[in-house]
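Feature request disguised as a bug: please show the residue count (430) next to DUF58 domain-containing protein in the output. Example input:
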Amino acid sequence: MAVTWRAVALAALGLPVVLLVPATGTVLLWTLLVVVACTVDVLLAASPRQVGVRRQVPSSVRLTEPAVSTLTLSNLGTRRLRALVRDAWPPSSAAQADRHRVDVLPGDGTRVRTVLVPTRRGDAHADRVTVRTLGPLGLAGRQASLEVPGRLRVLPEFASRRHLPSRLARLRELDGRTSVQVRGPGTEFDSLREYVIGDDVRAIDWRATARRSDVVVRTWRPERDRRVLIVLDTGRTSAVRVLDAPRIDASIEAALLLAALATKAGDRVELLVYDRRVRGRVAGATGPRVMSSFADTLALAEPELVETDWPGVVAQVQQRLSQRALVVLLTALDPAAVEQGLLGVAGQLTERHQVVLASVSDPEVDALRTSRSDAAAVFDAAAAERVGLERAAVALRLRQRGAEVVDALPDQLAPRLADTYLALKAAGRL
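Example output, currently without the count:
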């Protein structure tokens, strides 16, 4: 009966029951002492339900950058609070040292901080805060998990911003704010200045020259206040992994760089996230609000395993744009998907707008083309070569319909798209 009573008592306290020696008077005495000590410790431990918890977390943080989750703990009870507190977050938040030991007197409070280094875009919702209080002996205690809401929006990394300074320098040249001037169809007259060696003689203003003693040339700048609509395709092809990331991640980086550049150029930039329905939209934002709105919307953009409705994309573009604009399609240059969807409606877009299709290419396919180590590698090279020819063929068909095509590796898509935008602006094609 002694063994049974001891087992029941320990089990009632939640302690493991392991019997390795026969039940003797000594063992029974020590067991009884442990049970009594644990019971007293539990009774003297502070109640975890009498702990006030408040969580403070930043509204947003960029991917891979650290954020701090701060818990403010208040001891609302009458006993000293000795506790182990866990600030739980999902694994993608990569919480660093999320368990904290605290010692708080009655009526007092303290703060603990957990560093988060997110590895995934989107909203990270905090889990419960677990408080495990201990008695004075540290043998036993109580535990409770408290619901404390918290949300951290993880924005895209925007690693492509390193390309922005060089593109802004080129933009200043186009705007005539440096010694380099451009002249082309569709540009706006800016000002007059004296002729210097190297200027295009076609820019000489003969009437102004006749009124002055020096030769005078006209300077030009690209038209401002153009409309730029960026369409991010979130259909099934955007979920394909290129190297170690989904294809949509490179498209998001390209969208952010183009939005930053076009905003600096004085153009109005809009965003449409679409597959078979609108998943996100940015319209009407100006100034500094453009980038914050883009980042906030693109943070939630995720691939959907559905076919993109390209007639629906055309309808959305026609609904939002009444005048000629630049329409950038961030999608996959997949021959089967393009031929069955986009190719049939591309003409409806290009007849009214300047269209640019930007797609991510797979570097592993390029690597397969050059491998000749064995028979299997030769077959892989032949398949990779065929894929390349099919992509080139569908790109040619899109160009014949009036669209510009940018096909680049993941880390080169954003700067290549920015260069295409600058080239179109310099040529007055926006």
